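Apologies for my clumsy wording, but can you show me some protein sequence, whichever is easiest, together with the matching structure tokens, please?
=====
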Amino acid sequence: MHWDLIKYFRENKIVQLLLNLSFALPFLLVILWIKPVSRNYLTVRKFSGMSEPLLEPHTFEAVRLIAVIVTMVIKLLLTPWYLQAYLDMAYHRIEEQKKEAGRITNIDLQKRIAAVFYYLCVATLQYVVPIIICLYLTFMYKTLGGYSWNGMLFDDESCAVDSAPDISDTDETNKSIIKSAQEFHMAVESLKSVFTATVFRGLLGFGIWWCCFLYFATTSTGMVYQSYFTRS
């Protein structure tokens, strides 16, 4: 679909630039998750004439999260164009049929055109689902990793959930409910001691990098196949 849009907007250079930028942004996200290329270069190395690195580690994390969200939002905004490019396949099939020799029945022609519309839901899912997964993992990475949008870490000591409720004035039913809630809270706290923020950052960070890598790899492979192997 990207290759079809590039050909459709070949006279509009601004739209072509936007489409190519949207196509290349997942690759830039992959680079941001490679530590020697991005993190060490931006948060450790001191350039000439500077006494400190370009970014602090927590600022780099915030920039990286915002970059993922902006990229996926741009792709969601371009969804109507990509789906329209897919629907235009019906028109291209009719044009190709006009150039072919021989005859074809109306039923066969209708089947070829209807197949495009029947497959629209699948094409939509193939385009939207990776974006939703990347956004979901990003929000989980931000929340479970202990980050905030301004690049500052949350203060774990400010949470008042650990304080035990006062059960002195409750009846037996309320005591049993509060006791069950306390037991559940203790179980959650024991899990938190195993799945710490560092563990979540490692798991979800790898998940985001892997999803962005697969997204760019599959779209690149499809574009190369369509631009090279389908040439007449």
About this structure: DSSP finds ten helices and no strands in the chain. The mean pLDDT is 79.
